[in-house]
Amino acid sequence: MIVSRTPFRVSLFGGGTDYPAWFRQHGGMTIGGSINKYCYISLRYLPPFFDHKYRIVYSKIERPNHLKDIDHPSVRETLRYLDINEGIELHHYADLPARTGLGSSSAFTVGLLNSACGLRNESKSAKWLAETATHIEQNLMHESVGNQDQTMVAQGGFGRLVFQTDGSVQQEKLTSTERIHQLESNLMLFYTGLSRLSDKNAQKISHGVVSTNLGTQLIDIAEAAWKILSDSSASLDNLAPLLTEGWKLKRSLADSISTPEIDEVFERALQAGALGGKLLGAGGGGFLLFYVPQDRQEQVKQSLADKLLVSFRFENQGSVVFSSSEVSSRGVPKD
After folding, report:
1. What is the mean predicted confidence (pLDDT) over 287-292?
2. What are the pLDDT digits (tens) for 225-244?
3. Burial (CB count within 10 angstroms: exposed 0-12, middle 13-18, buried 19+), residue 211
4. For residues 69 and 63, what is the distance between their CA atoms, to the nearest angstrom?
């Protein structure tokens, strides 16, 4: 048995400019990082003693006999892409709920690729995992997804991704651990309690970025944020209005990206002391991220007491695999 552990991610700036329809023409840039909340996938060859060939356990349980009958699109297309013909048993676990703006679908696909290759005793680079997951999601599953999530969760770390018009992605990590710790200590992540299917909103964002000058504005915001992050003498508080500005731009693309409840929670946090924030992902629900100086965090926590506060920190490993012996001897490492 092989178990993969793949982090979720928090995207701070530039989301939307990582869609191929935009960056293939203009280039793109996002800033964010993988966090210490994970998607786990255990995978083994299923012994040939059952009346089904596949056993796939996630929010539902599937027991099909044929690859084409697998409902889970990522499982079906990934196994097909890798030409895995043996019977498979797969179990999925996660630290956070799916469809909440933290890159869970890409974490799943990257983790499944990593597990499947590990089961074959094949070692693949993080670059290969990211590029292959992107191909599967965009071209085989036909999902409206960008290119940032796969790279963030496969390679890990906090920094910026620069998307070139030739399709390549360059990752530049922020090397100052002190700066990263300063940033994460001023971020508060709240779960709205709402999950959503993001594909329609993602299509609206992709179309809106391409059909307006929104992509240029988002890149300008990301570049300004990167200058602040890279300059140890600059106050990180200056990131807060940039977070809000980017969120308002994305929110302007469609009414469905936000809701009255999300807007109310957002305003409540600002009134309690948050300097800025955004809704993560394609909108409609999920997690709200706020920049809050530490001396104001208790006030914000009390004001949003009806929402779940999720502590996190940025991690640097990306997707990793463990053998059954490692798992049985000490459990799946959490850090």
Report:
1. 96
2. 999 999 999 999 999 999 99
3. exposed
4. 9
**Does residue 308 belong to any structural domain of this protein?**
yes
Model confidence, pTM: 0.91
Give the number of domains in the chain: 1
Q: Which two tokens stand for residue 267?
A: 């305003």
**Which CATH number do you get for residue 272?**
3.30.230.120
Q: Could you tell me how many residues make up the chain?
A: 335
What gap in Å lies between CA 69 and CA 145, rounded to an integer?
A: 24
Q: Report how far residue 119's alpha carbon sits from residue 135's, in angstroms, rounded to the nearest whole number.
A: 21
- The dihedral through the CA atoms of 174, 177, 180, 184 has a sign that is positive
Q: What is the distance of C-alpha 279 from the center of its chain?
A: 13
In a domain? residue 335: no
Cα→Cα distances 69→46, 61, 73, 110, 311, Å: 17, 13, 10, 22, 39
By percentage, how much of the chain surpasses pLDDT 70? Answer: 90
